[in-house]
Fold each of these.
Amino acid sequence: MSLRMHPVPPVSLPSTVIEGLTYRAVAPADSLDGVNDLFRRTFPDGYWQGSFAAYWRWVNGSPSGPGHLFTASDGDRVVGALSFLSERLIGHGGQYLGVQAGNAMTDPDYRRRGIYTNISHVAFESLAASGVDLVFGYTLNERVLQTEMKIGYRRMGDGVSYVAPLHLGRLLGHRLPALDRPWCRAITGRGLLRLGRWLAGRGLKEAAGVVVREVDRPPAEAEALAVARRDRRQYEILKDLRQLAWKYAPAPVAGGNGFRFLTARRQGRLLGFAVCGRREIQGAPGLAIYEVVTEPAAERPASLALGRRLVELAEHAGLALVACVADENGPLAPVLPRLGFVKTDHRFKGIIKVLNPALPETLQEASFWRHSWGAMDYF
């Protein structure tokens, strides 16, 4: 059984003029030169030649459908832009087309003129006409969150950053997220790791017989896992084989370190898999956990076994820490402390804007949402 659906092409509505600026959807054949120049002016530290064009090619390769890009222009000068990544959502036996809010850019010379608010409303209208069911996203900044609330988003739970410190000496001098509790700040380095392993060892009977191995690609059974997870009473991003192959192709950023894949099996049967990658995290050398996907009935043993092996990989590589993002109230949160992870004060505040009034009401309840263990931009 497959969960594939045909991508919905974007619908371009007529351009809109607001206070002398022209707002419109960018068509596939349009030049990206103006947006690329805006990217360079807005994010000079992250710019490299052709960076936005490379990012946009990757977005448009999503199996869930093409990306959506909207701009605000003052004559020939692009002064604002907002992009969206298409993502399929599954849960409660259904499948829905969502878009994740991506890069939001405003020319430094045009800030505080309501460009982001205006471009968002233009985008919502066009996305709804294109058959998009909902928009979702995440933010760290409280002031940004308040702006999102004013333009129609709703809060949808938190993704909490967790860190497992491995080598205290390599962490000294790096700016890391503050730990969530005062006693956590005092327990760092190998002592914390040993404590976590000791606690994990007390409960590893749950993971008995689970064999974790590194593989060169997502397992073929990921398709069956995606089907099984569709019927859970929670919503999450679809992670079938096509989606995984696209998402974890070589990253369209300078200095990408690539991805590693691990599987967890018991007597040859796949219980789950993980995706990780080595990268700088807040300036320190670390291992980022991007995904942990499991069979619904084996979530705890598979997560324990995969998490323990991920920490071991990082320690053997001499890295300073392992980091991931997990639901505050999800089933993985109790697993992480047993593996040496502690909460930080980095919380990715989830937001949602429903565009299709016929959607189930549960789609607007935070308790029914699952956030990924991680994503490429979280750290």
Amino acid sequence: MSKKKKCPRSTWTRYGFHPSLLQSHPDFAEFLLSSPLGSQIKITNNQPVMIDGEPTILIESQPIKFSDFKKRFAYKRCSEYQEPFIVEKESKKIFTYLGAGQGLVPHHPYKSLLNRPIIKLQKEQYQKIYSSAEQFNRKGEYILQIVSCGAKKVMLFSAQHIFLRLIDPNGEVYSLGFGFQKPYRMPYYNHRGVLRSPDIWEYKGSEVKVVTSLLITSNEKNRLLEYIDAHFGNQKDTVFNMFSQNCATFVRKALSFSCNIQIPCQTRFTPRIMGYCLNRVDKALEQIDPYLLKPGFQLLRGLFISSIETTFAFFLSLIGLTLGAGSGIRGQALSDSKKIKKISPPAKGPEWWFDINAKSYDFPHKVRKWQLRQPSTFVFEKNVKFAI
């Protein structure tokens, strides 16, 4: 006979649920913590209501007893998205618990983008965030939030993620983030990218969440929606690449297109390296003969530098090949416009092998550094509830 799995008390209390439920209704507590439901409810201020001595779950604004809930719903892992969902047994519809007052509602987070708010703010909360967003020195009717989360210490390859929130004048908060559909393989591998609404990191534990608020106009909001539809409408195969087309790329290009806001998250290792090489070459030539630095010698100097760049590009390409640069899908690129462009795995393009300028990287940690310089930024550490 298999032993029943115990609910961890620390997780239950950290989520903010009443401790007595853990003892009186262990099956209810176990379901919440083993399914996606517990992590979805925890970011709201909702607590299970008791009816006839039994805990309930809010479903489409109605509290339903847990015994009736189990007859109607189950949670299953979806092989397509590698994620567990709450599924209505009869209709096979996917439900998500949202904090906008209705509780568990029909909502597929990958196929119903921005059609339901994750939470609804109280008037006082909305006014506070709007006042903060005004410090970004923009005008508008909508609030756009850039959210970065992950490890507290900002390092080059530390776990980081960036996503967006859109808050309308009624205080309804919509969440959206870009990630990969299947489990991660290698850094340069071209995965199929997907948008999730709400973003999955709204529910994940994070050492820190950095939230930057700014105002956008109705026209800019519409341009953002146009950008999303152009790149993700009708389930297009948009590429996700951990280095060159990731969550930071989506935020950078979506904001550039819709609001003309430039976020400096791109990195090229080569300018610093080549600048160092040029400096060393110039110093060596100057010691030999200052005449060598005159314009007549610049052609030879340029050829020398070009050969270094090409060699270095080829060397980086060989490393990239071992990290999956020759594998994955051919799909849609994220652009700064609505224009559609296809991209293949990086190593399948000849320019990637020999052009040093073809290698650029988008790093989420650079977005956070930019955020921390903005006056409308707030930092939340180890926040379990909705960090806004």
Amino acid sequence: FNTPNLHIIGTYTARDGRWSHETGQPQFDDGGTYRLLDANTVELAGKLGVGRWTRQPGTALQTAPAPVSAPAAVSGAPVGLWERSYQDAAGQKYFDVLELAADGTYVKHARRGTTDRGRYAVSGRALSFQSLVDERNSRDVAFTVMGGTTLVTEFVPPAFARNAAFFRQVEEWRLSNRAPNFRTLAIDGRSVPRSIAALMATALTARAQPWRPDALPTWVRVEELRNGHYSMAFTFYAPSSVEQMTVTYTAYGMTVATADGARTLTEPLPPDFVDLPLAVAAAKKDGLAGVLKKADIRVYKNHGPAWSLLPTAGKRATVNGVTGEPVHGDITGYVARYNADWDRIHAQWRSMLSRLAPRPSPSSSSSWSSSSSGGSDGDSGSSSSGPDYGTGLQNSWGSGDTDAYNRFQSGTPNADDCSRYGC
């Protein structure tokens, strides 16, 4: 959807006189009824009333393809969303969620190192998992469904089959109606988070402000997980106590951590900004290649909020967090600082080398002066063409006079330096 001042990307459906579109930004979501007036004109009724839309000149009439039928369900599969809570021998508690889809795909949401996704099949009372993440996660497990609400799985590592009684792993899952922590959009086979600003506001009011009333969000980081989903970390800074809080969400998990905020970002984000899927779409149009691996949005000096997008292949991209337009060039200031440091150090080396360069002897036409002392022909750390300020350097250093020391070091001591420390 394009107007001179608005650019919206989303998904739409239209069937049997009803239409809807979803953008990831609730204020732009809409729906209602439609009526085709002719091959080039449609009348839509929605939130803003009734309007007529005309096909753009030069575009051909396209017939929508037939609906794709859903994949055949896996016969006998315990399809559904299953969850389990447990703790290890040290008392650490964990929470896992297992999605078994009717099309034979599965996703496991768990602590970072054990997330997984892939395909499964059913043979009798056994589930055969084929991981797309790690072959070590591929396995056959026996399963039993009890009362339609409890799934019990049993797995014995093949290497310990003779001692199955001691190494059998039994897991009990219960059917869940839990909603995910955030909504997603399918991009490149991944479930990319959307409506991020709304979740940031929820984390602010539910977690950060009850902790410190002056806390505000300064940084959002998104990172791909092995199961094709993403984690989102919201960092909040409280200036009154110079502390930070980080609220991290996964699809079905959440953690909260606080720390000293002396080294964190302090410039607050605006309450609304370009949603991540729209930033990805703008970057792809500008040449971004590969699956999104990481993304973050923060406020940059002289640039405002901006998304930084890192794909699995190719170069990082930057998108303005207000306009949604791609940004070219470095907005972090790192390149400018690096070049300035390089120029400064280069100038210092030029100055030092010019002082150490041999000077022509007044009594010789040679471009090299000769030494009157019989020493080694090897390299020397000092030049015979200038005075030795070793005494002044030693005395000024012993007195803690940094400025005088630097003047001696550069060969430019003043009269006061020589009087006080010796030349």
